[in-house]
Amino acid sequence: xxxxxxxxxxxxxxxxxxxxxxxxxxxxxxxxxxxxxxxxxxxxxxxxxxxxxxxxxxxxxxxxxxxxxxxxxxxxxxxxxxxxxxxxxxxxxxxxxxxxxxxxxxxxxxxxxxxxxxxxxxxxxxxxxxxxxxxxxxxxxxxxxxxxxxxxxxxxxxxxxxxxxxxxxxxxxxxxxxxxxxxxxxxxxxxxxxxxxxxxxxxxxxxxxxxxxxxxxxxxxxxxxxxxxxxxxxxxxxxxxxxxxxxxxxxxxxxxxxxxxxxxxxxxxxxxxxxxxxxxxxxxxxxxxxxxxxxxxxxxxxxxxxxxxxxxxxxxxxxxxxxxxxxxxxxxxxxxxxxxxxxxxxxxxxxxxxxxxxxxxxxxxxxxxxxxxxxxxxxxxxxxxxxxxxxxxxxxxxxxxxxxxxxxxxxxxxxxxxxxxxxxxxxxxxxxxxxxxxxxxxxxxxxxxxxxxxxxxxxxxxxxxxxxxxxxxxxxxxxxxxxxxxxxxxxxxxx
Length: 495
What we know:
about 500 residues, alpha/beta, 7-stranded parallel sheet, 5-stranded mixed barrel, 14 helices, about 20% strand, globular, disordered N terminus
């Protein structure tokens, strides 16, 4: 323990001592996940006692910022909280325990968290027994943690990306000590399996196949906050998916910062393509998706496996970021414009009905009009189904943040608007090609704007809205795509 006047505990491998002082009997399991189930039970007893005191269940609200990796992490947090005895509450202002699972890809993401945290602080003054936890990528930045300690002392628990599996242990420590608990790891090689997970959707699920990133793109903070690449054991992945399928899941999304790197860190290395072949053998699993693929190491083996597969969806997210070889080199992307276009050609030749989507950054330091035109040229040649377009955001701690020749804001906005129009015009043309076709849609929800319609997702990842009701959610239907409206279709069920 340190700095007791600030009323916090920094937990860095001294857990046994801390729990001993908190009155534990020393019979704490050493191995995982048994250790975490031990602390879930300890926390459950505390929650049960509090529930009896206030004569109502304790509630929680988990808010997720950022990517699908974070969304999957949040499902793990929810699973642990429900195991402990908390009940989910959608309104964070009413919840007894609020958790922010943070993102730090862009600076403004941090500012959003601080803003909402300030509001929570005012609510907590009126509700003293309320607890607040912060986790995720933003917490891996030392300056963020220092700011929280100084200016947001009402926060109860702070942990990062590497030790999310210790959530129950950290929470129980906070409950016993009454002090702010901080536990941030710089890195880890540990992967803990078989902890509780509460899925958002009963019929589909994300599945982590690896963690971390070794690519170090010059604009990206992710390798610094997610750590080095580490792959899960393929048997553990297969076992998890088999359990999911037995529980009603028909579609999985395999998650990794760069799935093409899967298996390289294993004792017995296998390729991502080989993993896909094993997953395809699982009875009852209908669809396989994955993201994200880095162009630098997308193999011919993977293209072949995708082409031959009956379960892998006809969609590939292949971030280009820039069409200029010069800018790609500054970004440390490790491919050229020509190499990227040649890769796209191989993919389309092998899988003619593939839907390609991408990420593009506008205004990277040093980008000239000529560089930008190269990006437009790639967009016109590839003809993406859709693209996520971003204005370059300087990210403190990355090499790009200190590069000279930052592009003027007005120039960037002009280029962004031109790119967006190009992407949207091409996307509308590409998607319209499927008009009148009959395709299989997995119904995901009731339509947000018209309750007489359901929303289904096609193999190519595009959405179709068609007449239906809630009983259809989680099931597959043949749908005629009657009308293309840019990024989605209006259709009808074929019976």
